[in-house]
Amino acid sequence: MAIVRRSKKRDAILRVMRHTKCHPSADWVYQQLREEYPNLSLGTVYRNLNQLSDQQIIRRVGVINGQERFDADTRPHAHFVCNRCGTVLDLPDFPPSRQYIQSLSTQYGFTVEGHESNLRGLCQDCKKIITLEETVS
Amino acid sequence: MAIVRRSKKRDAILRVMRHTKCHPSADWVYQQLREEYPNLSLGTVYRNLNQLSDQQIIRRVGVINGQERFDADTRPHAHFVCNRCGTVLDLPDFPPSRQYIQSLSTQYGFTVEGHESNLRGLCQDCKKIITLEETVS
DNA sequence: ATGACTGCAAAGACTTTGCATCTTT
DNA sequence: AAAGATGCAAAGTCTTTGCAGTCAT
């Protein structure tokens, strides 16, 4: 509905999003920009990440360890999520077949707008840390 | 670690979980049990859902519209999630291939413990409501 | 009896929002 | 000048937690 005007803060937020592959939370983006924009407020980061998601310029990745995470790469792809530290890695997509979607959407009457495919487990670093912890105990 | 004792409240919570297919939030479970256990507290529901998840007796489905949702069906399966109302439907699994997991876990050094596969879109009811809204405007 | 479980209320973590002010067009 | 964008702080929502009392083994 509302017209979107350009703003320096939003440009900067999008720039940060596009220059990282860490699938950031709002607070992470905020921390990156505090130095450059000392009066930036966390609320503004939230508002802009939400607006950019609504415009489909970025994507919501989901809530990980209590925080919504975002991704500037809107191409279809899957994620690996570490169950311990929440690190997210990009993976090639493993989509359901057209036939799968077709038959289920007919059966249940829903419309499919997208899919999310994640692997869950332990990242390389956390595997090491857990091994260390077991050694100690 | 800690010994687990049986409790009536936890039994009831698990019973509710097993008798619904709505993939409930903590509050939904709480509301179902308020009449039967007028002194039940929401904190107890949270503690028990967390404990049951840790024991892998139930599963976390993820955060939908701000609330963690749970599922008593621990068999591998996919979900459809309505982007508007948050309804969750069970679907047959569409897992990544063994080869996909094998090659990526080798490449990145992570260990895969599971996968999540969701379709996202609009459920049958929400499709109708949106059509109505468009008619009005 | 021991230690797990619970109710209650407070605290915590994250996100949204109201309002006055500043910017963009 | 009009309307979107922002800072700030307050409010909102969901979840966790400390503590004293209760219950299961």
Could you characterize the architecture of this molecule?
The structure is a homodimer of 137-residue chains. With 137 residues, the first copy, chain A, is α+β, with helices and mostly antiparallel strands. Chain A has 2 domains: 1-72, Arc Repressor Mutant, subunit A, CATH 1.10.10; 75-137, 2-Layer Sandwich (Dna Ligase, domain 1), CATH 3.30.1490. In chain A, the strands form 2 sheets. In chain A, strands 4-3-5 form a 3-stranded mixed β-sheet. The radius of gyration of chain A is 18 Å and the shape is flat. In chain A, 41% of the residues lie in helices and 23% in strands. Chain A contains 5 helices and 5 strands. Chain A binds chain B through residues 62-63, 78, 80, 82-83, 89, 91-92, 94, 96-97, 100-101, 104-105, 108-124, 127, and chain B through 62-63, 78, 80, 82-83, 89, 91-92, 94, 96-97, 100-101, 104-105, 108-124, 127. Strand 5 (111-122) of chain A pairs antiparallel with strand 5 (111-122) of chain B. Chain B binds a DNA duplex (25 and 25 nucleotides) through residues 2-10, 25-27, 39-44, 46-48, 50, 63, 66-68.
- Could you give the order of strands across the largest sheet of chain A? 4-3-5
CATH superfamily of the largest domain in chain A: Winged helix-like DNA-binding domain superfamily/Winged helix DNA-binding domain
Determine the number of helices of chain A (DSSP H or I, runs of at least 4 residues). 5
Contiguous low-pLDDT stretches of chain A (5 residues minimum) are: none
Nearest-angstrom radius of gyration of chain A? 18 Å
The biggest chain-chain interface is:
A-B, 34 and 34 residues
CATH class of the largest domain in chain A: Mainly Alpha
Q: How do the SSEs of chain A run, as a string of H and E?
A: HHHEEEEHEH
CATH topology of the largest domain in chain A: Arc Repressor Mutant, subunit A
Whole-number total of structural domains of chain A? 2
Q: Tell me what portion of residues of chain A adopts beta-strand conformation.
A: 15-25%
| CATH A-level architecture of the largest domain in chain A | Orthogonal Bundle
pLDDT averaged residue by residue of chain A: 96
| Shape, principal axes of CA atoms of chain A | flat
- How would you name the oligomeric state of the polypeptide chains in this document? homodimer
Biggest β-sheet description of chain A: 3 strands, mixed
Number of strands of chain A: 5
Give the N-to-C terminal Cα separation of chain A. Answer: 59 Å
Residue share in helix of chain A:
40-55%
Helix/strand class of chain A:
alpha+beta
